[in-house]
Each structure stands twice: as C-alpha cells, then as structure tokens.
Automatic annotation (TrEMBL):
Pfam family, one: ETF_alpha
Record-level GO BP terms: fatty acid beta-oxidation using acyl-CoA dehydrogenase
Cellular component GO terms, alphabetical: mitochondrial matrix
Species of origin: Aaosphaeria arxii CBS 175.79
Record protein name field: Probable electron transfer flavoprotein subunit alpha
Compartments where found: Mitochondrion matrix
Residue segments, region Disordered: 173-197
Domain Electron transfer flavoprotein alpha/beta-subunit N-terminal, residue spans: 22-208
Keywords: Electron transport, FAD, Flavoprotein, Mitochondrion, Transport
Taxonomy, superkingdom: Eukaryota
Family affiliation: Belongs to the ETF alpha-subunit/FixB family.
Length: 334
C-alpha cells in the first residue's frame, strides 16, 4: 500500500529558491561521537548540496575534530557548553533555532533516536514548520518516504515548508566512511537560554555486548524461552558464540525474561543487522516492524505455520531448547 500526502504549514512557500544546504545534527556522549547519528550525514549527501554537521556539549571540540574526518561533511559547527551534554530538548531547540537562522539551512536532519524524537518536534514548532519523522528514502529535496502503521504502509510526503525538519531512520542510511574527510570547524552561536529543565541522573543498562541498534549480528528470543533463567541459559551462549547483540520480543520483555532495552519492534528498537537469528518468536507484525530489514533472517520455531517463517530466509522447525544449544556447540567448534 502506498499513500501520498502533502504537508503545508502556515509559513508560505516564498518562491525564492535558496541553495540547498543541510544541517546534520550529530549526537555525542561523554566526548564520544555516536557513529549511528552519522546517518543524518548520509541522508544529507543523498539530498545533494552542502552538508554541515552540528555538535554541542562540554569539551565537544575534540569530538568535532574526530567527526571532521567523516567523508562528505563540509563544515562542523560546534558549541561548547555543558548544558547540551545530555541532549535535553528544552535546551537544544533554542540552540538549533539560533544556529539555523544564522546559517540559513534548508534541511535539518537528525537520527530517529530518543534524542531526535524529542528534539525535532520542538524545533519544528519554533521554526513554524511541519516535522517529518523517520524517513527511509529521499525522492527529491521536498519529497520523502516514511513507513506508517508499523511499516504496513509506505507514505510519500511532499513538504512545501521553507525549512524541512526531518528525523531519519538509521538503518536506511548507513553511516558514511569515518576516515578521509577534512571538514572545517567553526564555533556556533550559544543563546544560553534559561531552561526550566535540569538533567539530574539516568540509569543505563550496561552491557559488554555490541549495541543492539547497530550490531552486525543479533540473536533474539521470545515467549518460547519460557523463563528468564532459560532465556539466559539458552540465548547468552549463542550470542557469545556469534559475537552478537541480544534482542527480545515484547512478550519476552513483558514476561521479565529480558530487559526492556532489548525489545525489538514497533515499540522497541529498529534493527537491520547482517544476521537476525530468532528463537521462540512467532513473528507478530509489531515485531517484524523492527527487524524485517535485516539482511538475513533465520528463525527457529516449533510451529511450522508461525508467521516468522514468511519473512525468514532460513527456517528451522524444531524445539529451541534442543536446536539452539546444538547450533551453539557447532558454532563454538568451528
Ligand atoms: P508469541 O506470539 O507467544 O510466540 C511464541 C512463539 O514461540 C510461538 O510461535 C511458538 O510456536 C514458539 N515456541 C514456543 N515454544 C517453543 C519451543 N520450545 N521451541 C521453538 N519454538 C517455540 N512485539 C514485539 O516483539 N515488539 C514490539 O515492539 C511490539 N510492539 C507492540 C505494539 C503494540 C501497539 C501492540 C498491540 C503489540 C506489540 N507487540 C510487540 C506485541 C506483539 O503483538 C506480539 O504479542 C509479540 O511480538 C509476541 O511475542 P512472541 O513472538 O515472543 O510470543
């Protein structure tokens, strides 16, 4: 199914064509560039025109120097201020507004991450434009493709806004090469807006495994695992043998088998690894919405009619408590 719609805002199209220029808003944490956020640069390159990247936080100049090596970025604007460290949208929206007005960018792009999802609607409101979410393709400078209804329909959106404020789906725009570029650095404007919001603390799930959202291989378990003990006993050695991240279905998360941060699907994470190997997952549409773009999907399920087999490249009908340990042993002996 394919729908087409047009967004119009109260800002009338001026008719004056500005040179296409993208501001790609990047993420960093504790002085480390979030490489997945470079998807915004890839999307900017697809648009054509110049791509300027934006970073803010304390000690962010060294992150900007690192990001400057990314191919395809012309300039990096950075703002050194601890108020922008944790990505609070109340602080970031006026910061970006100021720098966008100064730079006259036509397209503002960032990842469809928790940061992008909370920031871009605020920014769009300040700029009086319609925000466009979670794009997976660019048809032209004003026409974008995005999934709706958990990926069951694809919408083509045409925007007449002067400034387009967009979040991009990382799995649809692989990060560019992070070596070989030589972007110029420039200090940006800091409006130092008084904010009613203060960052106090956070509880992060810590793991030595690859990050679920960007891992090459993901092994995922569902309700078929029966308990947290069995989930850990069966899935962890498989993940270790493959060097994979661990994911889970919502049923597994809701039943307490796996941490909330591991949920894959419509209301969890979107993943598109080279290999997605799942066991004891039926393949509900809400789960498929988060993993169906994986390059190779392998599924183990005891029910030959499970819908997961309709999207799987490789399927094994059998009892996971027997098949997964067998597979793990074979992988270990390789
Ligand atoms: P089940 O559907 O119960 O499937 C378990 C499977 O395990 C079965 O196919 C069974 O044959 C198999 N099995 C059982 N025992 C064994 C065994 N011993 N060996 C091999 N196979 C076995 N779900 C998500 O995953 N992610 C989401 O983000 C998400 N968001 C949602 C949002 C909304 C608004 C709604 C309404 C639902 C959402 N869901 C989501 C829930 C989704 O609809 C399903 O309920 C869920 O994905 C089912 O999880 P499951 O496949 O693990 O469980």
């Amino acid at each position: 199914r394919h729908a087409r719609t047009q967004f119009r805002s109260t800002t009338q199209y001026s008719g004056l064509s500005r040179l296409l220029s993208t501001l790609a808003v990047l993420e960093q944490r504790d002085g480390k560039l979030n490489v997945a956020s470079l998807a915004a640069v890839t999307a900017g390159q697809k648009l054509g025109g110049s791509v300027t990247a934006f970073l803010a936080g304390s000690g962010v100049k060294s992150v900007a120097e690192e990001a400057a090596k990314t191919k395809g970025i012309e300039k990096i604007i950075y703002v050194e201020n601890g108020a922008y460290d944790r990505g609070l949208p109340e602080n970031w929206a006026p910061l970006l507004e100021e720098n966008i007005k100064k730079g006259g960018f036509t397209h503002i792009l960032t990842g469809h991450s928790a940061f992008g999802k909370s920031l871009m609607p605020r920014l769009a409101a300040l700029l009086d434009t319609q925000q466009i979410s979670d794009i997976t393709a660019i048809e032209s400078e004003d026409t974008f493709v995005r999934p709706i209804y958990a990926g069951n329909a694809i919408l083509t959106v045409q925007s007449t806004d002067n400034t387009k404020v967009i979040t991009v789906r990382g799995t649809a725009f692989p990060a560019p090469e992070t070596e070989g570029g030589s972007a110029a650095l420039e200090e940006g404007a800091d409006p130092k807006t008084e904010s009613p919001t203060e960052w106090i603390s956070e509880d992060l799930a810590k793991s030595d495994r690859p990050d679920l959202g960007s891992a090459d291989k993901v092994v995922s378990g569902g309700r078929g695992l029966k308990s947290k003990e069995e989930f850990d006993r069966v899935m962890t050695p498989l993940a270790d043998a493959l060097g994979a991240a661990i994911g889970a279905s919502r049923a597994a998360v809701d039943s307490g088998f796996a941490d909330n941060s591991l949920q894959v699907g419509q209301t969890g994470k979107n993943v598109a690894p080279q290999l997605y190997l799942c066991a004891g997952i039926s393949g509900a549409i809400q789960h498929l919405a988060g993993m169906k773009d994986s390059k190779v999907i392998a599924a183990i399920n005891k029910d030959a009619d499970a819908p997961i087999f309709q999207v799987a490249d490789v399927g094994l009908v059998g009892d996971l408590f027997e098949k997964v340990p067998e597979l793990t042993e074979k992988l270990k002996s390789q």
